[in-house]
Backbone:
């Protein structure tokens, strides 16, 4: 915990200077306290339906104070709504079995389970917090569904900003996992990977709060979307 917070503090001072970093520190602590009230906690259990249906643990309601505090300083864990996930999947103009699905900031792994209902070649989740990664691994072990189509599922514990993208056709899923500087870093890695190995890649960006960052990438173009999400693709869309 202290290591995570120390790294956060060092990065913030480098990026924005001591005054802004201190302001952000207090803003985050205030946000953590506000989210600790019984009323807010009750609200977080609103995402439980998926877990009842599938007998897994992907709710944000059961997060301990430690994961919530770290989440406040990185990106708070919140699972994707299943209906919205299906809507986004239906927008992908792809042959699923040729693509690897990667969730950047996969938390307890709900999207990995939901993606396994599609015949992806492989599914990978990258999650920063070891506690959430461990829950994701348990969920991958427990999940049972008669309609499951992909069984090559993996949760990786690590920092998405330095994740080495596999040289395969990709579907990248983003649900606000990173602050602006981290998102820029991760997308620069993706740009380099696509330039080195040109291949089809799609990015689904749910709740696109930092859309301008994606607009600034060299390899991605916006294909469409709705108020809730945006869909981007690399310039090479043909499979070889
Ligand atoms: C809004 S949640 C999305 C969870 C999941 N993708 C979903 O849609 O159900 C964002 C997640 O990103 C994780 N995260 C934050 N910074 C990260 C980083 N640098 N590398 C990997 N994961 C990170 C958080 O711990 C959190 O679990």
Residues:
């Amino acid at each position: 915990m202290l290591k995570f917070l120390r790294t956060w503090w060092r990065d913030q001072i480098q990026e924005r200077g001591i005054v802004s970093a201190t302001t952000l520190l207090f803003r985050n602590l205030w946000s953590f306290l506000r989210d600790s009230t019984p009323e807010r906690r009750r609200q977080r259990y609103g995402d439980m339906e998926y877990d009842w249906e599938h007998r897994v643990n992907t709710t944000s309601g059961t997060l301990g104070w430690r994961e919530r505090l770290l989440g406040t300083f990185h990106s708070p864990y919140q699972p994707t709504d299943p209906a919205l996930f299906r809507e986004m999947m239906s927008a992908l103009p792809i042959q699923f079995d040729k693509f690897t699905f990667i969730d950047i900031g996969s938390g307890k792994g709900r999207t990995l389970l939901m993606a396994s209902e599609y015949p992806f070649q492989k599914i990978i989740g990258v999650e920063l917090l070891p506690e959430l990664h461990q829950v994701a691994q348990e969920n991958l072990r427990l999940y049972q569904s008669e309609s499951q189509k992909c069984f090559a599922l993996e949760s990786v514990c690590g920092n998405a900003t330095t994740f080495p993208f596999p040289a395969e056709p990709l579907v990248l899923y983003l649900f606000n996992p990173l602050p602006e500087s981290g998102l820029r870093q991760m997308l620069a890695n993706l740009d380099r990977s696509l330039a080195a190995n040109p291949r089809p890649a799609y990015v689904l960006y749910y709740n696109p709060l930092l859309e301008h960052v994606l607009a600034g990438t060299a390899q991605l173009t916006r294909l469409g979307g709705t108020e809730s999400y945006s869909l981007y693709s690399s310039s090479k869309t043909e499979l070889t």
